[in-house]
From TrEMBL:
UniProt entry tagged with the keyword Transcription regulation: yes
GO cellular component: cytosol
Cellular compartment(s): Cytoplasm
Family, as annotated: Belongs to the NusA family.
Record GO terms (molecular function): DNA-binding transcription factor activity; nucleotide binding; RNA binding
Protein known as: Transcription termination/antitermination protein NusA
GO terms under biological process: DNA-templated transcription termination; transcription antitermination
Source organism: Desulfamplus magnetovallimortis
Length: 512
């Protein structure tokens, strides 16, 4: 069968639908074979040949030459075989060319259904194969329609879904608008490949920088991490493999032209570009910019930090509704607790006071314990002897006595706090009864219980705890602890027992 349009149709479908030519040819052969079986019988041995050069399709039915025919669908006599091939013998298999014009309407309809079904399957597979390698990339499309807040994007060969939760706030699109989005995922489903898009993913910001900044595309500047609050503010950390290339300046561009094009794409989203550092303290200080950092206390075991800032920079470090510190947490991967210098001073004073209640601890030892990351009596009780021995100036006997005294104070504080709670309950009951009495007699009853401690914190000195003899020395030690020069060096990445270490920004700058 010579069909002049077959070759042209196959080539056109291959271009328009993105389907491989071999798949289309195999589909055509299967459809014609199905039509031939409708005409010649299900047991017939049929082969379909397609000529790539001419586009000719031929159908052959193979029969075996036998002396006596038992199954006419697959056998024929020697006399009949000699008509097709004069040299045939018994046992030969003869391919008899079939006239496809005799298939009829039903067989042609069957072939049509097979072609439609196979074409749909091939088209679904082609869409998946074409887009799976684009996962994690930026793609351009045209808004085709909007369905319940979800945007259907026409990508040419397929449609993609930009759900409402992956859209930036205050973004409005209408049909026909061009849109740029990040390919979040490509899923293979029974109804076809589903392409999911996003404009809120942090990687969308990173890919935008890769498309706008040549140094990023050439891997001279590396984007280490990114954090976003879509449509409001974002932070991105960059580093450079070339010492002569400033990573922040490369991303900003001349007069900010590079970063401004990205800001326009993100509808005015503010972008902070910070320099990544292998030293995590320096990295965190950069991530919290423009706030100035006075001190950093690092707890590497729990991946958390206490950030101490001057009082006037507290609101800047935290940001509006905690935005700045929240983005810094996501950018660095550390839990950050920001506090002012006054708050940190009160915390230190509480620590000194609690440590000075131990008879064996002097002011110098209390200062060393604080600097080595010990903050509560419970930490001293739970610490190993080796951890306490690492604090210079303590012997093994002193460590044993200190832990024993700390345990006694901690247990007494727990029991005392429980007793305070019971006394408060009793006082509330007495107050209620006195109020009833005063109401009946008309006489005023003075308040009861004002002299009781105001806290159940085991670290805070309560009314029943005598103060130490030298409060002035504690204040002096507290002032010295806030001095920059007293901070430990950064050569040792962590304390021996993994307890928090204190890092000053000045020391961080020296290391970097």
């Amino acid at each position: 069968m010579l069909i002049t349009d077959v070759k042209r149709v196959i080539e056109q479908l291959s271009r328009d639908k993105g389907i491989n030519r071999e798949v289309l040819v195999a589909t055509l052969k299967e459809a014609i074979e199905s039509a031939a079986r409708k005409k010649l019988g299900a047991r017939a041995d049929i082969e379909v040949h397609y000529d790539e050069k001419t586009g000719e399709v031929e159908v052959f039915q193979f029969k075996e030459v036998v002396d006596e025919v038992h199954d006419p669908d697959v056998e024929l006599t020697l006399e009949d075989g000699l008509e097709y091939d004069p040299e045939c013998e018994e046992g030969d298999s003869l391919g008899i060319k079939v006239d496809t014009s005799l298939f009829g309407r039903i067989a042609a309809q069957s072939a049509k259904q097979v072609i439609i079904q196979k074409m749909k399957e091939a088209e679904r597979n082609a869409v998946y194969d074409n887009f799976i390698h684009k996962k994690g990339e930026i793609i351009n499309g045209i808004v085709q329609r909007i369905d319940r807040g979800n945007i259907i994007v026409n990508l040419g060969q397929a449609e993609a879904l930009l759900s409402s939760r992956e859209q930036m706030p205050r973004e409005n699109y209408k049909r026909g608008d061009r849109i740029r989005a990040y390919v979040l995922d490509v899923m293979e489903e029974s109804r076809g490949a589903q392409v999911l898009l996003s404009r809120t993913h942090p990687e969308f910001l990173a890919k935008l920088f890769a498309s706008e900044v040549p140094e990023v595309a050439e891997s001279i500047v590396t984007i280490r991490s990114a954090a976003r609050e879509p449509g409001i503010r974002s932070k991105i950390a960059v580093s450079s493999s070339d010492s002569d290339v400033d990573p922040v300046g490369a991303c900003v561009g001349m007069k900010g032209n590079r970063v401004q094009s990205i800001v326009q794409e993100l509808r005015g989203e503010k972008i902070d570009i910070v320099q990544w550092s292998p030293d995590v303290a320096k990295f965190v200080c950069n991530a919290l910019s423009p706030a100035e950092i006075a001190k950093v206390v690092i707890d590497e075991e729990n991946r958390s930090m206490e950030i101490i800032v001057p009082d006037e920079f507290l609101s800047i470090a935290i940001g509006k509704n905690g935005q700045n510190v929240r983005l810094a947490c996501r950018l660095t991967g550390w839990h950050l607790d920001v506090m002012s210098m006054d708050e940190y001073s009160r915390k230190l004073k509480k620590m000194y006071s609690s440590f000075m209640r131990i008879p064996e601890i002097t002011i110098d030892v209390a200062e060393k314990l604080c600097r080595n990351g010990f903050t509560t009596l419970k930490e001293i009780v739970d610490a190993s002897d080796d951890a306490l021995l690492s604090v210079s100036g303590l012997s093994e006997d002193e460590v044993v006595l200190i832990k024993k005294s700390a345990k006694q104070l901690f247990n007494s504080s727990d029991s005392k706090s429980g007793a305070v709670n019971h006394r408060r309950l009793d006082i509330k009951e007495n107050e209620s009864s006195l109020e009833d009495t005063s109401g009946s007699s008309g006489e005023e009853v003075p308040p009861v219980g004002d002299e009781l401690p105001k806290t159940d914190d085991p670290l805070e000195v309560d009314a029943t705890t005598p103060s130490f003899d030298e409060p002035r020395k504690v204040d002096e030690a507290l002032e010295e602890s806030m001095e920059v020069s007293a901070a430990p060096e950064l050569d040792d990445p962590s304390n021996a027992d993994g307890t928090p270490r204190v890092v000053e920004p000045s020391k961080v700058d020296e290391v970097s």
